Amino acid sequence: MVEIVKILFISLFIITLTAFSGCTDKTTEQAGQGKIYIVGTEPYFPPFEYADENNSNKIVGFDVDLINAIAADQGFRVQWKDLEFDALIPALQSGQIDIIASGMTITDEHEKVVDFTEPYINAGLALAVAADNEEIKSIDDLKGKVAAVQQGSTGSQAAEKLKAEGKIGNIIYLAHVNDIILNIQNGRADFMINDLPVTNAYISKHPGVIKIVDDKLQSESYGFAVKSGNNELLNMLNTGLENVKQDGTYDEIMAKYF
Ligand code: ARG
C-alpha cells in the first residue's frame, strides 16, 4: 500500500513537472513568435548603423533601433545581414534579404526597382574637405579637384553630375565612409560628398580631421526598402512606423542618436 502511494506521488510529481515545463516552453515560443525577416545594411555608417563599441559583432544605430521597434509593434522578428551598400538592392531583388535599412535615400532611380516606406528621417548631402584645407571654400572651388565618395551612393551620383558639368576632376569610389576620410587625410582626394548627418557625427567624434564647407548640397529623405510589389511587408513597415511615431518610441530613438 505504502509503495502504491509512493508511486502515485512520484507520478503526480512527474506529471506536474512535465505540465509546467510544457508551459515554460510555450511561453518562450510565444515570446519569440513571428516571421523572421532578413534586414540588409552596410553597417559602417554611424549614427544609422555601426558596430557596437563593446561587441563588434553587434550592429547598433538609429536604423537598427527603429526597425526593431517597428518589428516589436508589428509582431515580426529580424535578422541583420551585413552587405556592401551597392549590393543591397541586388540582394533585395534576388530574395537574399527582405528589407533594406541602411540610410538609403528615396530617389526616383531607386524607386523604379524597389518600394520605399514613407520617409523616416530627413537628411542631405554635405561637401567636406580636410580640416586644414584653405583652398576649397565652396562648390565653386572644385575645378580639377578629386572627389572621394561611397560606391553606389547619392553622394557618388552628385559627384558624377558635377564631373559631367566639368566642375570637378576625378572621382574615387570607395566602399566605406572610413575609406573616404582616409583618402582625404592622405591627400589622395581633395573633397568628399557624403550624407550630412554621418559627416557631422564623424566630426563630433574626431574633431580636427575634416570640416564641412557646404551643408546644403542636396536635401534628401531616407526610407526602408522592400522588393517591388511586396505590399504586405511594406504595409507592416508603414503601419509600424506610424505607430512608433505616435507612441513616442520614435522620439526616444531620435534623442538617443541625435
Ligand atoms: N543616403 C545615401 C544613399 O542612399 C548613402 C547611404 C549609405 N548608407 C550606408 N549604410 N552606407 O545613397
Q: Layout of helices and strands, plus pairs?
A:
Blueprint: H1 2-31, E1 36-41, E2 44-45, E3 49-52, E4 55-60, H2 62-74, E5 77-82, H3 88-93, E6 99-100, H4 108-111, E7 114-116, E8 121-130, E9 147-150, H5 154-164, E10 171-174, H6 177-185, E11 191-195, H7 196-205, E12 210-222, E13 225-227, H8 231-246, H9 249-257
Parallel strand pairs: 1-5, 1-6, 9-10, 9-11
Antiparallel strand pairs: 2-3, 3-4, 6-13, 7-13, 8-11, 8-12
Helix pairs in contact: 2-8, 2-9
Bound molecules: arginine.
Structural description of this entry:
By secondary structure, this protein is of the alpha/beta class. It has two domains: 36-120 and 223-257, D-Maltodextrin-Binding Protein, domain 2 (3-Layer(aba) Sandwich), CATH 3.40.190; 123-220, D-Maltodextrin-Binding Protein, domain 2 (3-Layer(aba) Sandwich), CATH 3.40.190.10. 42% of the residues lie in helices and 26% in strands. The chain is built from nine helices and 13 strands. It has a five-stranded mixed sheet with strand order 5-1-6-13-7. It has a five-stranded mixed sheet with strand order 10-9-11-8-12, sandwiched between helices. Strands 2-3-4 form a three-stranded antiparallel sheet. Strand 3 (49-52) and strand 4 (55-60) form a beta hairpin. Helix 2 (62-74) crosses helix 8 and helix 2 (62-74) packs antiparallel against helix 9 (249-257). The longest helix has 30 residues, at 2-31. The radius of gyration is 25 Å and the shape is globular. The N and C termini lie far apart (74 Å). Residues 12-31 have low confidence and may be disordered. The structure holds arginine (ARG).
